[in-house]
Amino acid sequence: MARARIADDIGTAAxxxxxxxxxxxxxxxxxxxxxxxxxxxxAEGNTVEVRVPPFGAVQAIEGPRHTRGxxxxxxxxxxxxxxxxxxxRESWNDxxxxxxxxxxxxxxxxxxxxxALAATIGV
Length: 123
Prior knowledge:
Blueprint: H1 8-19, H2 25-42, E1 48-52, E2 56-60, E3 74-77, H3 79-86, H4 92-97, E4 101-104, H5 114-121
Parallel strand pairs: 1-3
Antiparallel strand pairs: 1-2, 3-4
Helix pairs in contact: 1-2, 2-3, 2-5
């Protein structure tokens, strides 16, 4: 069964709250899930798995599909880093260089998808 889609008004409000000082875990979880939902909608596919533990993970980006085991292209980071990238508060290159993003595989680069994601979130 598919997860229920987070409505845009609820998602953007959660992102704003999660970016504020002293954000609750619930708001952060909703913000991460909403932004991952948008990424999977804007970059449909199953080539890269984007993980933001413990809040969520999605498969995105068109290309070769994996069917079993650990996917060959994985991007993982914490919630604060993901939300900073998703809202254009940090660049992909800076986050990777600082070691805040673990990216493995030839296609594990979200750089081209982040501007559209940030524009959609609009926060």
